[in-house]
Amino acid sequence: LTFSGSVLGAEGAIVRRQIERFASLHRDLPVDIRVTPDSADARHQLYVQWLNAWAPEPDVLQLDVIWTPEFAAAGWILPLDRFAPDTGDFFPATLAANTWQGRLFAVPWLVDVGMLYWRTDLLAGPPATFDDLVGAARGALAAGSVSQGLVWQGARYEGLVCVFVEHLAAFGGRILDDRGAVAVDSPEAIRALAFMRQAIDDRVVPRAVLTWQEEQTRFAFQNGEALFLRNWPYAATLMNRAGSAVAGRFAAAPMPSAGGVPAAALGGAQLAVNARSRHPEAAWRLVAYLTAPEQLIERARAAGQFPARRGLYEGDALAGALPVPPEDARRIIERAVPRPVTPIYTELSSVLQVHLHRALTDQESPEDALANAARGMRAILERTGLGGGAP
Amino acid sequence: VSGRVRPGPTLERREARLAWLLMTPALGVLVILAAGPLLATIWESLFRHDLRLPWLGRPFNGLGHYTAALADPRFREALLHTAGFTIASVGLELVFGLLLALAMDALLRLRGLARVIVLLPWALPTVVAALVWRFLFDSQGGLAGRALDAVVPGADVEWLAGPISAWVPTVLADGWKTTPFVALLMLAGLQGIDRSLDEAARLDGASAWRRFAHITLPLLRPAIVVALVFRTLDAFRVFDLVFVLTGGGPGTSTEVVSLYAFTSLLQHLRFGYGSALSVIVFLVGFTLAIVYVRALGPAREAR
Q1: Chain centroid to CA A216: how far?
Q2: How far is A221 from chain B (nearest CA, A)?
Q3: Which of A208, A253, A287, B216 has its CA 20 to 30 A from that of A313?
Q4: Is the peptide bond before A126 cis (omega within 30 degrees of 0)?
């Protein structure tokens, strides 16, 4: 049996430990770990090469939430209904993101949600609205206590879409509407993008973010340069380590709102079974083992990662393990918005990324950028025949 | 009776046959490694093949992908970017390569050492070089930003976030990396020039500039053309440098054709369309190569 996924740092140590434990429980099932690149794009490319060549290994694949429909439609991963998985305990949004044509193709493992990290030594509480956030940032910048207001991921990559999805939800907009039609050129969306650009023009958000991914924004906040940081849960554990300028002086809160519903972009890791696996039953047992409550609690305690099982957030299984109280974490996850669930997501996102980045680097106005993005995305939906959702 | 020689193949023909026989392995490798994948790519480009949409099958699409590519504004822009990048970086490399070669040629001692030092950037893997240049032009304490700040206080340029400024590190990095290659080609050319021509001109009282313009430069032409061919073809299919340094951004301002073909193929999984883009890149490069080889031909005979 071969497992492939992210095996770096604290996360890697615990995955290895859990897999070894599984192997010692099942003497007949030795498990190899195949290390894959840390960068999501690089891992996606590697998976495509393996799966398109019908390689039977790796048997178990760790997927990004946006890949499941793509791999499911391509026939590369097994529908899981044959194993009759017990899904009652998982967050509905995570199940929806892993469902294609009514069938579940991957088991939610860990949930990633965008959160607003804020400095507890400089502010009394987190901002509830984006206006409050801008006001607090301006005050701190004027007082000279920080050199940057808010930092987020602004490079042209998937992370920018996540940041945009959160602004979009805060202003009451969406990427696709309920019928699967493109809605990214709505007035709400234009207001959201105009707000993001204005924040850069006003230096509330430094222009430097336009080339930053997660880690650069974390460094800026961790070095004490920024008042606010938009990032995933992983950052909290690292920023509380020795050597961090803000250890013990920050907290996480839901993203602010701006008239709409404050929401987090939904990300995270899921486990799927290779459709050509020679040992699908054994592979499923590994998936079930890794996604069981005990393993999820262990991961949360060791690396601060959010389990995909809702039940764990009730009671005190997770007390003190997460960067936010479990009750708050559950609320953030329940309000998380999935990105469009479609096999052509990567291409839709790529068009959106280009135009978002053009707007933020003053190459297009927010109106033009979103109009062009919507036109491009509609053309893709039309060309692929996926306009109205599932074919 | 037995002294009659049977009329057999001439020596020349036998030699030719042996030559073909000896070349067969090399030709075979060429067919397998070069022609095979090329033909497979061309074949693939004629079909609508999208890994994400297996239910569409793999219908024949003729030249549909090619007309779509030529109408695709992102692809047309990428072609323009690639052409601009090629002209700027190859121009830079020729000028500085020539200057470096002249300087090395004039050295009386330590020539070997100078050559080794000059060659260092060329020896570095492109990805490493690109990472170094990104670091230099990065916003967080990048050296280029700080240097500019010292000259023009408050300039605060985000090099990699500007549609024009992002080209500066891109072209500089390519120039830095491949000027040594051009310089060595030129140095070899310079060393092949007969010194007595220069001596004679000097005795006739020709100025240094006239000697350079009328003797050195014309005689260096073959070396210049070789450098031009190699560098143009290389620059036209640039991928790794841009992929690491700018990722094609901001927006798509530094996206080159190879990068867009890669995105279409391996990120969007549009195999047919991505193959068509690759074939177009190949055709442009192939045409350039033929044009250059034609230009190189007469120069070779003239020697």
Answers
A1: 17
A2: 12
A3: A287
A4: no
**Dihedral of the alpha carbons of B114, B118, B122, B127, in degrees to the nearest 10:** 130
**Tens digit of each residue's pLDDT (9 = 90 or more) over A312-360:** 998 888 888 888 888 888 988 988 988 999 999 989 999 999 999 999 9
Which structure tokens are listed for A189? Answer: 């969306």
Contact B227, B234 (CB under 8 A): no
- In tens, the pLDDT along A193-246 reads 999 999 999 999 999 999 999 989 999 999 999 999 999 988 888 898 888 999
pLDDT digits (tens, 9 = 90+) for A45-79: 899 889 988 999 899 999 999 999 999 999 999 99
SS3 (DSSP) at A244: coil
Q: Which of helix, strand or coil describes residue B193? A: coil
B158 touches A at CB < 8 Å = yes
CB contact set of A199 (below 8 Å; sequence gap of 6+)? A134, A149, A150, A205
Q: How far is A300 from chain B (nearest CA, A)?
A: 32
Cross-chain CB nearest to A73 (options B52, B158, B270): B52
Output the six-digit token pair for B283: 């055709």
A211 vs B: CB within 8 A: yes
In terms of CA atoms, which chain B residue is nearest residue A391? B55
Residue A158 CA to residue A176 CA, distance in Å, equals 17
Interhelix angle A158-170/A345-360, nearest 10 degrees: 80
Structure tokens that stand for A81 in this block? 């209904």
Contact with chain B for residue A366, Cβ under 8 A:
no
Question: Does the beta carbon of B53 lie under 8 angstroms from any beta carbon of chain A?
Answer: yes
Cβ count near B134 (within 10 Å): 20
CA distance A249 to A230: 16
Phi and psi at residue A73, to the nearest 5°: -65, -35
Contact A361 B161 (CB under 8 A): yes
Six token digits for residue B205: 């009282």
Please give the full DSSP string across B104-158, using - where no structure is assigned.
HHH--S-HHHHHHHHHHHHHS-HHHHHHHHHHHT-TTT-HHHHHHHHHSTT----
